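Hi support team,

I've been running sequence recovery on a batch of backbones for a student project. Most finish fine, but this one hangs at about 90% for roughly twenty minutes before it completes. I'm not sure whether the input is malformed or the queue is just slow. I've pasted the structure tokens below so you can try to reproduce it. Let me know if you need the job ID as well.

Thanks,
M.K.
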């Protein structure tokens, strides 16, 4: 009996069926195996001095919801999903050895570890098996950028001007109607979440965060539709018509799009978000706020393409330094600055933090507490549901003064920021109940008004 022509689809952060180029074929295979390998390196401690895994409980829960939902989608289309835990290159090589596929299809990754895994698999493939590496997770493919790598723009603004002038964003692809069947002799399997971490299986977001992320393609599209279209019908000043005015908010479900979690795992593609915003603009007209959503997607593209140039340098070129008391106080929300402490408690309790809060806690850690920026980046990697390696580490490099942006000395006066963005102290009192009974004008500087109850901060920013 003739061996069927089989393709293996190797998933990373592309956990969707619609607008997934890996699932579209010029010449469809006779059989297809779809596999996701959870990298065992992500289950190692995030720091040598700490037992917590690189994948914190909020991240694992969202990831597992996403793979479970994807498996259901694939089953409905006549396929399935195999989930493995281990070394991605070794697990894929073993599958290729067993199945002898005609090709392996995988999305291009800009990050050093994932790129090295792809190269390692390529070196182990037998003759007759092709490896197709496909641009699948950015607005603009690397090959379509209007400049060569050696002519990389010196700043995001220069990058944005060039790509907005010279590039059309392709429309997203519809989901396939059906998929090739599962190979007859191929294994199937889906390890339970408890196998990874019981803490993750039981993790729930603190309701004070006012938004509970559910992983998966369907949840991502539901959020996309809700944010773009639901608010106008009930007269709320939220959504794409108000995004630029609300994006610096701190609390609530809709001050931000919150698309980033689904983008980070590829449950939504950036082209799907871009097209959805353009559909909204076709009905309502383009405005500065709706443009700003696509502007943020370009920031994401910038970080993803820049990460390829940076290689391992994106993560710093030395081992992480030891943990110290200042860092431990910062991550536990015990610095004495309510605006910082509230944000860090929200981060660990919900897996999310607003952009405004992220900038402030990062600046305070690096500029005021004088802690190595890489510890902050690694802690965010552990905590954030929407962790995206190029964006997270790229932004932290800016804070640490090693990024590509020429403005290397940006400092956030966190008390001034607190007064501006949380003038009544509602945000800090939400996460720090001890502040509830203080007047609004005392909540950001409680050590000044009630020194018998509130310790002075570890490092007092300029006030």
């Amino acid at each position: 009996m003739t061996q069927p022509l089989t393709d293996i689809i190797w998933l990373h952060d592309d956990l969707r069926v619609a607008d997934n180029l890996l699932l579209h074929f010029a010449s469809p295979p006779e059989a297809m195996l779809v596999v996701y390998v959870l990298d065992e390196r992500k289950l190692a401690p995030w720091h040598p001095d700490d037992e917590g895994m690189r994948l914190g409980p909020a991240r694992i829960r969202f990831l597992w919801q996403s793979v479970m939902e994807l498996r259901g989608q694939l089953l409905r289309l006549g396929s399935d999903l195999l989930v493995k835990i281990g070394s991605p290159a070794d697990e894929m090589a073993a599958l290729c050895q067993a199945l002898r596929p005609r090709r392996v299809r995988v999305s291009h990754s800009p990050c050093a570890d994932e790129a090295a895994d792809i190269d390692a698999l390529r070196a182990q493939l037998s003759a007759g098996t092709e490896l197709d590496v496909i641009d699948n997770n950015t607005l603009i493919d690397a090959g379509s950028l209007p400049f060569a790598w050696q002519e990389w723009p010196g700043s995001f603004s220069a990058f944005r001007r060039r790509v907005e002038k010279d590039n059309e964003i392709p429309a997203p692809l519809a989901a396939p109607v059906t998929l090739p069947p599962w190979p007859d002799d191929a294994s199937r399997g889906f390890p339970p979440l408890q196998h990874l971490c019981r803490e993750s299986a039981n993790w729930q977001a603190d309701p004070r965060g006012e938004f509970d992320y559910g992983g998966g393609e369907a949840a991502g599209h539901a959020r996309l539709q809700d944010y773009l279209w639901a608010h106008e019908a009930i007269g709320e000043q939220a959504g794409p018509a108000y995004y630029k005015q609300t994006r610096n908010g701190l609390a609530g479900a809709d001050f931000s799009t919150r698309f980033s979690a689904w983008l980070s795992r590829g449950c939504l593609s950036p082209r799907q978000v871009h097209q959805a915003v353009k559909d909204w603009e076709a009905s309502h007209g383009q405005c500065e706020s709706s443009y700003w959503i696509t502007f943020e997607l370009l920031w994401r593209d910038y970080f993803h393409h820049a990460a390829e140039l940076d290689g391992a340098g994106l993560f710093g070129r030395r081992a992480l330094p030891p943990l110290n008391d200042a860092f431990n106080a910062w991550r536990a929300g015990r610095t004495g600055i309510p605006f910082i402490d509230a944000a860090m408690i929200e981060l660990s309790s919900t897996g999310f933090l607003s952009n405004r809060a992220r900038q402030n806690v990062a600046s305070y850690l690096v500029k005021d507490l004088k802690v190595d920026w890489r510890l902050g980046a690694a802690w965010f990697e552990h905590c954030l549901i929407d962790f995206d390696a190029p964006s997270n580490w790229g932004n932290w490099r800016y804070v640490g003064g090693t990024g590509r942006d020429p403005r290397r000395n940006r400092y956030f006066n966190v008390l001034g920021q607190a007064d501006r963005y949380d003038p009544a102290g509602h945000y800090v009192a939400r996460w720090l109940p001890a502040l509830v009974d203080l007047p609004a004008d005392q909540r950001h500087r409680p050590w000044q008004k009630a020194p018998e109850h509130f310790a002075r901060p570890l490092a007092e920013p300029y006030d």
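--
Follow-up from support: It reproduced on our side and the slowdown came from queue contention, not your input. The mean pLDDT is 93. No action needed from you.
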